[in-house]
Design brief:
alpha/beta, seven-stranded mixed sheet, globular
Length: 187
């Protein structure tokens, strides 16, 4: 990859927090939640950050958990751009939300992000209890280009099937052609 291309990608990443502005109608819920807790989770490609949002009032532990894979077209690594959605889900569904900060291109090649997503969800299944989370009640979902792979990342044949079996997979692609509340659900 040319240096100019790398610089362009880094500029896109750096400006994401200022340029990404979708989901405004849903930003009313969850504004009173505490800041997410950052947890470092091991994956086969090194550790990734997972931001854990908890509902109010504090529900009895262990909480069911929704694992969210941020958008960004596999180029922008800015999971905080989906902070509003994680807060909305935690506040309205009464579940914990784990927002995975997987690596993206060009720093990582396919299938690193998919492996990190699967490994983070599998870690929550096996170790979520250390965070007050119930890994046996886990769903996965995401935005943008991620919308088609959360179900596959958790059931990919190359991955151990028993390590992560989400009870629900969903995608909520924010786009200008659909209302921000549109969802597609896959069982």
């Amino acid at each position: 990859m040319r240096l100019s291309d790398r610089l362009r990608v880094e500029l896109i990443r750096a400006s994401a927090r200022f340029s990404v502005d979708y989901g405004r109608p849903l930003r009313f819920a969850g504004t009173d939640l505490a800041a997410p807790t950052r947890v470092s989770v091991p994956t086969r490609h090194g550790k990734v950050g997972v931001f854990v949002y908890r509902p109010l009032p504090a529900e009895a532990a262990p909480l069911p958990v929704h694992v969210h894979f941020h958008g960004g077209a596999f180029l922008m690594r800015h999971p905080a751009m989906d902070d509003w959605w994680c807060r909305y889900v935690a506040a309205t569904a009464g579940v914990a939300v784990a927002n995975v900060d997987f690596e993206v291109a060009p720093r990582a090649a396919y299938p690193v992000a998919q492996h990190q997503a699967h490994d983070a969800a599998a870690w929550l299944v096996g170790h979520g209890d250390s965070l007050g989370l119930d890994g046996s009640r886990l769903s996965v979902g995401g935005f943008s280009s991620v919308e088609d792979w959360p179900p596959r990342s958790a059931s990919r044949p190359a991955m151990p099937a028993a390590s992560c079996r989400p009870c629900r997979c969903s995608a909520c692609p924010p786009s200008t052609s659909r209302p921000s509340h549109a969802t597609a659900t896959r069982a």
